UniProtKB/TrEMBL annotation:
It comes from the Bacteria. It holds the Pfam family HTH_8. Residues 143-372 form the Sigma-54 factor interaction domain. GO terms for biological process: phosphorelay signal transduction system; regulation of DNA-templated transcription. InterPro entries: AAA+_ATPase, AAA_lid_NorR, CheY-like_superfamily, Homeodomain-like_sf, HTH_Fis, P-loop_NTPase, Sig_transdc_resp-reg_receiver, Sigma_54_int. GO terms for molecular function: ATP binding; sequence-specific DNA binding. SMART domains: AAA, REC. The modification 4-aspartylphosphate is found at D50. This is DNA-binding transcriptional response regulator, NtrC family, contains REC, AAA-type ATPase, and a Fis-type DNA-binding domains. It comes from Pedobacter caeni. Keywords: ATP-binding, DNA-binding, Nucleotide-binding, Phosphoprotein, Transcription, Transcription regulation. CDD domains: AAA.
Length: 455
């Protein structure tokens, strides 16, 4: 049963009609008291709450009610309805545990999507599907994963792919964010429509609008012909906004508007265009931290992260490395016509313990290079070892001369290696290029705490 709490009879009626048409059971109340009373007695699957309900437009009462709802039922999904002017209120509401917010006047499709997504996700907790079941239900062939966390992630990705919910994919560089974004599109009802990828990190501020929304001829000096924007190209399909954390403040506002209203203006034209698009964003930055620092808009974050998928780093799913290597080798057998390509068990073991900060991309590059260069089809440790790509490092990253002694630098590097490898001594030693016993000696010498049992 969906519960609507709003004192405006017009809003209640139109929401009820809309949801009933879609065969949802709906109940509407006008006051906070009635709402809480209903929640106590009935099994509510989702709540739609108008934050500005009651004559008090500060939203205080709505916010209080949200807190009370959360105390009674921490799980029930809550969608807030707010006026455009009270976007800050919506952000506060999200912090208090609401799941989504919709601006008035709302777009019916958008609202129904949000309802469908939240109910779909609530129905089933992830973590129940095996790889086999996932493969039966979805098309994830190009994504190699047996790791439990990854399977949970794929299960959620599969389920949300059928909705139009916006998805934020986070994770270190090379962990497969783009691959997941493509898979969501491929498993969605939009699969036969365009999938448009935009690398926001590569678009300059001055070109943002023309690139995203297009321009008409003469809109600015260099605009000699009309240009179709990326949103228009993605119409009816999916737009994948990569590196969203790299967007400057001005472009963030412009993006927020199109994500809120699904409408925009082509540069140099006064006509408003609407767009029907599914939005998937990705970043390797920590957006919550950026919000705290004031470099990323909080309202934009809530607009894009109805569903967040956090991809694990490869070192957190080391058991998947042999599967990934097998998959890569099998592709290369066909590509280079070398059907006998193999990796020795020793090399496989060695690869499993290799520090790979560039994640799957780094592994893939290394395997491919090793195959290309090796004269034999049976690849051993030595064939790979010469191709371990050191991450690009510039000495400008080093502290200023005089800021640190050599000993202090050594201590810092040891601590970083331990932290990176979750205190696993042998892995940290390998990354530092010393033996385990040499690392133990240094840990004792510098009094760095460690856990002997963690290796
Ligand atoms: N689970 C996986 N199975 C097979 N190949 C994978 C998997 N994950 C990633 N890859 C491959 O690794 C490479 C990097 O993946 P992708 O480009 O999706 O990473 P990313 O997280 O988007 O990187 P960046 O943040 O640098 O843009 C691609 O060639 C991709 O096909």
């Amino acid at each position: 049963m969906i519960l609507i709490i709003d004192d405006d009879i017009a809003v209640r009626t139109s929401l009820m009609l809309l949801l009933e048409q879609k065969k949802y059971d709906v109940f509407a109340v006008a006051t906070a008291m009635e709402g809480l009373d209903f929640l106590r007695k009935e099994n509510v699957t989702l709540i739609i709450l108008d934050l500005n309900f009651s004559i008090d437009t500060s939203g205080k009462e709505g916010m209080q009610l949200l807190q009370q709802i959360r105390m009674k039922d921490p799980q029930v999904p809550v969608i807030l309805i707010t006026g455009w002017a009270s976007i800050e209120l919506a952000v506060q509401g999200m912090k208090l545990g609401a799941n989504d917010f919709i601006n008035k006047p709302w777009n019916n499709e958008h609202l129904l999507q949000s309802v469908k997504t939240l109910i779909t996700l609530k129905d089933q907790k992830p973590g129940q599907s095996s790889r086999k079941q996932l493969d039966k239900e979805y098309e994830f062939q190009s994504i190699i994963a047996e790791d439990k966390g990854m399977l949970e992630l794929l299960e959620i990705a599969g389920r949300v792919s059928k909705t139009d919910a916006s998805v934020l994919i986070t994770g270190e560089s090379g962990t497969g964010k783009e691959l997941i974004a493509e898979a969501i599109h491929q498993n969605s009802l939009r699969r036969n429509r365009p999938f448009i990828k935009v690398n926001l990190g590569g678009i300059s501020t001055s070109l943002f609008e023309s690139e995203m929304f297009g321009h008409v001829r003469g809109a600015f000096t260099d605009a000699r012909t009309d240009r179709t924007g990326r949103f228009e190209m993605a119409n009816k399909g999916t737009i994948f906004l990569d590196e969203i954390g790299d967007l400057d403040a001005g472009s963030q506002v412009k993006l927020l508007r199109v994500l809120q209203d699904r409408s925009y203006e082509v540069l140099g034209s006064s006509r408003t265009k609407t767009v029907d698009v599914r939005v998937i964003c990705a970043t390797n930055k920590n957006l919550a931290e950026m919000v705290a620092k004031g470099t990323f808009r909080e309202d934009l974050l809530y607009r894009i992260n109805l569903i967040t998928l956090k991809l694990p780093a490869l070192r957190e799913r080391g058991k998947d490395i042999p599967l990934l290597v097998d998959f890569m080798i099998s592709n290369l057998r066909g590509l280079y016509n070398r059907p006998k390509l193999e990796v020795t068990p020793e090399a496989m073991k060695w690869l499993k313990h290799l520090p790979l900060p560039g994640n799957i991309r780094q592994l893939k590059n290394m395997v491919e290079r090793s195959v290309l260069v090796s004269r034999t089809d049976i690849l051993d440790i030595n064939d790979f070892a010469t191709h371990v790509e050191k991450q690009p490092f510039s000495d400008s990253k080093l502290p200023e001369v005089g800021a640190m002694t050599l000993e202090e630098t050594e201590i810092l590097m040891i601590k970083r290696a331990l932290q990176f490898h979750n205190n696993r001594i042998s892995k940290a030693a390998l990354a530092l290029g010393i033996t385990r016993s040499a690392l133990y000696r240094r840990l004792d010498k510098y009094n760095i705490p460690y856990d002997e049992t963690s290796d």
